[in-house]
Amino acid sequence: MTAALFPDTPLFSWVILPGLIFLARITDVSVGTVRLILVARGFKYLAPIAGFFEVLIWILVIGQIMQNLTNPVCYIAYAGGFATGNFVGLWIAEKLSLGMVLIRVITPKPAGDLLEGLRGRQYGVTAIDGQGANGPVQIVFTIVPRRQADTVVELVKTFNPHAFYSIEEVDSVERGVFPRRARGDESAFLALLRPFRKGK
Hints:
Layout: H1 2-5, H2 10-41, H3 46-67, H4 72-96, E1 100-107, H5 112-120, E2 126-132, E3 135-145, H6 149-159, E4 164-170, H7 188-193
Antiparallel strand pairs: 1-3, 1-4, 2-3
Helix pairs in contact: 2-3, 2-4, 5-6
């Protein structure tokens, strides 16, 4: 196909073709990274679509590599596209901020101020008493959209600067207390993805 579009010239063989391979590899690896995240977040309809395009692009790239086995620049472009695609895919996933996370806070002092701060911002919070290595502690749980995790962590640091906290993935949640979405808080793209996700 490429031979029909471009003449078999040194410019095509050593510049244009490697460039196309590089860009295509970035695309398919980026799509693959996003696909894995879609699978983990429960987007059971979008993940197969992403997988289809990922494999389709990969097959086209491999076809060009096999037709140009004597061209080392194509190999370099392929490897460079793979490495860059990982970076781009993770960057895209970070910007999408898909899914929900559980934030667990353990504080040795009473967490009343933190609880009030979280509830005042309409976050659902559960608090229990526990026993730590050095005495009594309070354990605070809240489940929030991933894109709001940094906001909650800032609240934790404000009210309990020395508190221990951890963040982990949540597969799906239902019937919880979640902050209302402010206008513009969710991008149009994320709003389109919502119907394809299982759970909330």
